Amino acid sequence: MTVRHAQRSMRHSPATKMQASVVARWVVSSLVALAMLAVGGRGAVAQSPEAAAPMSLPIPSPATGAITVVTTTTVFADMVRNVAREHADVVSIIPAGVGPEDYEPRPGDIQLLAAADLIVSNGAGLDDFLQRLLESGTGGATPQVVLGAGIPTLTTDGEPNPHFWLDPTLVAQYYVPAIVGGLSSADPAHAAEYDANGRAYVTQIEALDTRLQAIVATIPVADRKLVTFHDAFPYLARHFGFELVGVILRNVGAEPNAGDLAALVDTVKASGVKAVFGEAQFNPALAQTLAEEAGVTNVVTDLYTDSLGAAPADTYLGMMSFDIERIADALR
To answer: CA 258, CA 116: separation in Å to the nearest integer?
Structure first.
């Protein structure tokens, strides 16, 4: 997928300065707490990689007086809910099952943003449509959190790849502190609760990551190769130790040409990959065709990346667990 770098600068905003201060304090104190946890947890009993996945705690309904937070995707909405809990009514602009690459803004999106106390996006070109909506509506006056701001990027065809959240450590290190800071700035009365909820959520993410690493370890090293429908997986591959062999569709919305597909078929044949992976939000036909041409019999077309889906992929933690389990099952 071709992406455009679209991170907005908010350096001169007083709200942003307060948010940055909250994030800095949160990160430092969290690192101390995690170090203490590591020292104190040396005697813990190791769990099987097939043990139940750590799941998000049930999210209570928004309380009276809750702030309104609008996110660009359902993935980010779930993250915000886990930190805000009853203190925010969280709404995603893009519905479940739809990716940001092919999302067409609706007239009601402007009204949704106008009612927001806080807007949460990813940046790095993933949700460029947000800027156009803001220019048509609020003019950008509502405080914003850009979750991908400051994260070192991997590039795809020379442009930044925005799919940071498929590496859970980046969510724990960058996304959650940014959410805590944004909520604390928008609603200072509940800052202490956001801080505590953020810490609890990071603990869940770290527990999930430990389990997923154990699952990946059950895949023979020589078989840890991915051929995917679109380029959502560089951060996941780097973190979990997969080799990215090829991508079917580099530019979502444009059909690949015959020459590119033929070259990819040759690459897949030469690499000996055991499976081709597609995503639930895309038509599976191309992935199935590539696999057939390359002689690969295992085709997985229901991974989730840009959007949450049905249970168990209806939360960020559940989505990550579902994806890694599906990948491992196909490659073992």
So the answer is: 46
